[in-house]
Design brief:
Protein name (chains A, B): GST N-terminal domain-containing protein
CATH topology of the largest domain in chain A: Glutathione S-transferase Yfyf (Class Pi), Chain A, domain 2
Order of helices and strands of chain A: EHEHEEEEHHHHHHH
Largest sheet of chain A: 4 strands, mixed
Strand content of chain A: 5-15%
Pfam families (chains A, B): GST_C_7, GST_N_2
Mean pLDDT of chain A: 95
Distance between the termini of chain A: 10 Å
Shape of chain A: globular
CATH class of the largest domain in chain A: Mainly Alpha
Oligomer: homodimer
CATH architecture of the largest domain in chain A: Up-down Bundle
Number of domains of chain A: 2
Family (chains A, B): Belongs to the GST superfamily.
Number of helices of chain A: 9
Radius of gyration of chain A: 18 Å
């Protein structure tokens, strides 16, 4: 049995987490139709749980190693893997009878693509989303940690006008991405890949941040209409798959 | 015979152009071992030549269509194609006996990768390189056009310190890219692709800007040593191929 260690919130399943990286793994597990369970963590307990399992840190900060969500433990093979891309590479290798999400040779391309979703195509919306978090669905421990880790910059006060502009620029950049992907359903044409799950993951972060009140829900529904409804079709394709969570 | 329409400078071949997009096509033609000739244009004559041949514009500016380098004319098929990615897709299809540079299904991934080279991994060096252009190898017409099109921002004056920092950040980001690509020679492992030619193209722009004086040459040689010499190996792989230019 695969256990996915994910970030807890007060929102009910299936939209409980807001970690785009954990979402990627949910998505991949569902596309692979692999049964799994979720173990919910809060920021202050990520490092100790990772160390207990032997999940390696995913990066280095000036004050030491950094342990992050997601990591998985696979009791069938007794392997523990951190980092969404490495988790998916592991699953492709360990379960060769399931759909391959990272076709050999495309690792670097998909890694750069997955990173570019936020840093290039969604960058304009980053400050807009950032100011709405932590929201009422954060647990107390996560909210406290989040505020320390991502303190609001008082110089970054946004006006109604600048927020509107940010949404416009985001829509336009996402339109460029839609054009680059073209008419076929997935980033790699008719073949689903890790890159689609990365897109779904970042969109799900957006959904988490927006799905707070009527205005946010309306905004989400608008995004789902953008670019001929292509993002809605992508989300729908994922949601129509059987949920393999135990 | 394929004719590649490229941007003229005063630098002798094979380093005559500084257009990263034209470089991509030189690279692809050489990897495909397809004979071709070059037709050198200056900025003010790009649009008229493109229109004369029927090469479509590559983007829209507020004041109308924008015609850019490179475009090709293939007299064998009598086709005219603009935009480096579309040119390479055309060559893959028209010359199926040559190496495929864009494996079907990877178009969007390679397009995003090629764009991310400059906008993500080289972005820190953009203002440093920008201030050295136009240099003494620009023709008069190109220099005049370039100054109008990319006027220097007086607020962007850089200090020795900020230039040093930019180089450090560029080296660090390129290090991340090197790590993402891994130990194999090409972005897609052992298989060369459009993405490698995009890397070579942007590096060649850097070479053009640096290869002015001893300090710049030294800087270029340092880059060639970075990250275990992996960028030098990439450039060498390209340069060791037979030049198929007529």
């Amino acid at each position: 049995m695969i256990t996915l260690y994910d970030l807890n919130t007060l929102r009910p399943d299936p939209y409980r987490t807001y970690s785009p990286h954990a979402w990627k793994v949910h998505c991949v597990l569902r596309f692979k139709s692999l049964p799994y369970q979720t173990f919910w963590l809060e920021y202050p307990s990520i490092e100790s749980k990772a160390k207990e399992l032997g999940a390696p840190p995913t990066s280095t900060w000036s004050d030491g190693s950094r342990y992050t969500i997601p990591f998985i433990h696979d009791s069938t093979t007794n392997k523990v893997i951190s980092d969404s891309l490495l988790i998916v590479e592991y699953l492709d290798n360990a379960y060769p009878d399931t759909i391959t999400l990272i076709t050999p040779g495309t690792e670097a391309l998909q890694s750069v693509f997955a990173d570019a979703i936020w840093t290039v195509y969604m960058k304009d919306i980053d400050p807009v989303i950032g100011r709405t978090l932590p929201n009422k669905f954060f647990t107390e421990a996560n909210a406290e940690y989040y505020r320390k880790w991502a303190p609001k910059d008082p110089n970054e006060e946004m006006t109604e006008e600048s927020i509107k502009d940010s949404w416009k620029r985001f829509e336009s950049r996402f339109g460029e991405l839609a054009e680059t992907i073209g008419d076929e359903p997935f980033v790699m044409g008719n073949q689903v890949s890790f890159s689609d799950c990365a897109l779904i993951g970042w969109l799900m972060l957006l959904r988490f941040a927006l799905w707070d009140d009527d205005k946010g829900k309306q905004r989400w529904n608008e995004i789902m209409e953008w670019h001929g409804g292509r993002w809605k079709r992508l989300i729908d394709t994922y949601e129509e798959l059987r949920d393999t969570r135990i």
